[in-house]
User: Fold this.
Amino acid sequence: MLQEVGRESKVTFNQIKEVENWQFKPYEDKLEIANRTIKEALLKSKRPAVAFSGGKNSLVVLHLVLQYKPDVTVQFSNTTNEYACTYKFIKQLKKEWNLNLHIVKPPMNFWECVKKHGFPSYRRFHHGAPACCEILKERPAKKFYKQNRIDLVFTGLSAFESRVRKFAIYNHGLLFYSKKWEQFRCHPVALWNEMDVWDYIEKNRLPINQAYEKYGLDRTGCKYCTGFIGWERKLARLNPKILRKIQQMMGQTSLHDFYG
Assistant:
């Protein structure tokens, strides 16, 4: 298992390939590992929580953990930059699944944050979390965990979302103690590909966030994020007015500025 592998400071190409190869392994094997990892994690914890974003990965993790601990704390970070469908889905799931849900809010909203600290740049050229992510999500979550003495957090992190995450999964495994968060972190579906996630949702007849279908999304998350390649095309399709507003705030010009 990856928990027992890789404590080197520098990850090699072959080690990254080892993580990538998990995409092609049987779904049943990955499901077994996820369940085993969750049970192992719960043995280490007195106050566990699930970080639930309203997205498909964290939905699967939440459903898996609930099988072992129905009253687990469920923490949703309201960044004030979420899709309306996400808020609706969170409310729906709280009622249908009787969740022990806690909605964590930041000290300012998204627009106030970017006016003060700027928009996030492309992650590949930006080390660490951008200011908006830290202020609107990480700091409020850390405060909540500390106040509630949360010693273990389950997440829906996937190794296949970026090269950085492949590095992290190889080096730390699916369950590890994080000095940054001062708690255990568990990523049960980190080795699952997207088809595995959708298979689990279909086989277990789970409800899903309608933002996926309504907006044609691969991922939910922050609605007006500028920290990835192609954000302009995405916003041009979803909300051209917001795109122009963000471009103007960044000091950029567009054809609309010339032709109205």
